[in-house]
cytochrome-c oxidase
Amino acid sequence: LKARELRLLEVDNQVVLPIEMTVRIQISSKHVLHSWAVPSLGLKTDAIPGQLNQTTLMGTRPGLYYGQCSEICGSNHNFIPIVLELVPLTYFEK
């Protein structure tokens, strides 16, 4: 771990989303049930093999938001972190 990193919550690639804009998130799984959860944003959606589920998000505050799979889905369940970075829309206009 590097300084200021959170154990078991860091990811290789964060999902970057705009604030103050409705974002539709579509979720599925290839093999087993997962539950995609970011509690601080009130998000929790099941990822079911062969089924496409969706949820919406409209963030109001920029920042990093951490989550994890909240379904016990296998031996590496505790290694499924989620990081959303919410940024102003101007970030995408560069």
In short: The mean pLDDT is 88. The longest strand covers residues 63-69.
